[in-house]
Amino acid sequence: MKRFGKRSFTLLILTCLMLVSSACGGSSSPKSAETAVASGNATEKEPIKVIWWHSMSGELGKVADKLISDFNASRKDIQVEGVFQGTYDESLNKLKATLGSDSGPTMIQVYEIGSRFMMDTKAIRPVQDFMDAEKYDNSSLEPNIKNYYTFDNKLYSMPFNSSNPILYYNKDAFKAAGLDPENPPKTYEEVAEAAKKLTQGGQTGASFAIYGWFMEQFFANQGAELLNNGNGRTSLATASQVNSPAGVKTLDWWKQMVDDKALLNLGRKTDDTKKAFAAGQIA
What we know:
With 283 residues, the chain is α/β, with parallel strands linked by helices.
């Protein structure tokens, strides 16, 4: 993925006031499957056009374009138009502006923490409906990822571009600091210790974006949940658990590195940490 810590992505099928096979867009939307056009002596149906909003940019955007191109080349009855809509937050906000109208997409890629909102809007159809209708075998999907998007025994969204946060480190910087480049930190304590040693010569040891998803992952690594009521699964979440022991440990760890000047605070954009790492600003 394109960022220091990757986000999971969810492919959610939207419904409109029309049939699923019909277009969800406005005047520029394609005709439905029932529209026929004359072609010589034959009558051909115009392909169903699927508008897919996504948040894939950079190298991932090229991959998404290739997936779309390959699919379109394999089908004459369905054609997909991919439309980049910015970050996950930007894309979701654009979607919110279309709710209640027919100007939204047929499908949209939403980050996993947007799943609850998508379900609560009642504006989507669970992907399970389509799987059941076509007797689609989803046994090849990774169980843990599949379970993440399953509510009430129903898969609501198709796992797509799902991932875990990854710790990148600069082997040259490790050598210069007297650390073993083949033996990177394996615990939070070791990360803090290495970050101190790596902070030298204008280089800061580390940087982690202040992003809610990272916090959720830090909690999960401790067997804890960020929100109550099963992270909003057993029932709607009513309180954050950031002040729980898992949260206190995580924030103490993070703040201590900031106080030690071994951690550079670059805000919540993971693209900024990626750029700083590539530039040698952080190790």
